[in-house]
Amino acid sequence: MRLNNKNIVVTAAAQGIGRATAIAYSKEGANVIATDINEEKLNELKAENSNIKTEVLDSTNKEAVENFSQSIKDVDVLFHAVGFVHHGTIMECSSDEFYNSININVYSAYLMSSFLLPKMIQKNKGNIIIVSSAASNVKGAPNRFIYGTTKAALNGFVKAMAADYVKKGIRCNAILPGTVETPSWEGRVNMADDPKQARKDFINRQLMGRLAKPEEIASLAVYLASDESDFVTGTLNLIDGGWTL
């Protein structure tokens, strides 16, 4: 019970990394509030894990996030996993697509952090964990122009937050996965001209010869949320199967 009685908010919790992390946190004794825009998948999570509270929330909507934060009395950890993967180069990224990715990948992190942070500062202890990506300022990836740009921004976001609030007992760290076998990844693969080849290409670029499982990312998230990592802040934690070697 490494997270016993910790109050944790998990975003993008309906599927993939967010879902696996919400479940892992709950198993470790945390009081989890799982949020997402996908009510159907949230209900499935709740049905399978009755001790997890769920709430439909659009993390890019300022009013919705503000109302949500006002309903939270106490929060120890924010695990923010909201994200969108745009496929294409700069020449294949329209202005609307550019701003949409900024809105989903960066603005949502700003809103969730800025509204929940005061509750952490109030008790001089808190923990923010942001899901970024190895495809960022760490490594360039083909056809990931705006995705890599936004994830690089999140890496800077984490460093700045950590520096600004370390004296107030707040920690902020990022998790930088490589390719993870999630429903959203499956969807992107199936949209390819040749899904079978696309799957092979993703796997071939992983030096371990396989993709990560969401549960493997969740295991790192448990460590970062626990008191075991109490001396860890401002870090960019790669978990990419050797992709960036």
Q: What is the CA-based Rg, rounded?
A: 17 Å
Provide the residue-averaged pLDDT: 95
Strand content: 5-15%
How does the major sheet shape up?
Answer: 7 strands, parallel
Outline type: globular
Cα-to-Cα separation, first versus last residue:
34 Å
Secondary-structure element order, N to C: EHEHEHEHEHEHHHE
The number of domains: 1
CATH class: Alpha Beta
Q: How is the secondary structure organized here?
A:
Blueprint: E1 7-10, H1 16-27, E2 31-36, H2 39-48, E3 53-56, H3 62-71, E4 77-80, H4 95-122, E5 126-131, H5 145-165, E6 170-177, H6 183-190, H7 195-204, H8 214-225, E7 236-239
Parallel strand pairs: 1-2, 1-4, 2-3, 4-5, 5-6, 6-7
Tell me what you see in this structure.
- The protein contains eight helices and seven strands, in the order E-H-E-H-E-H-E-H-E-H-E-H-H-H-E.
- The protein has 245 residues and is an alpha/beta fold.
- The protein has a single domain, classed as Rossmann fold (3-Layer(aba) Sandwich), CATH 3.40.50.720.
- A seven-stranded parallel beta sheet has the order 3-2-1-4-5-6-7, with helices on both faces.
- Helix 5 links the parallel strand 5 and strand 6.
- The longest helix has 28 residues.
- The two termini are 34 Å apart.
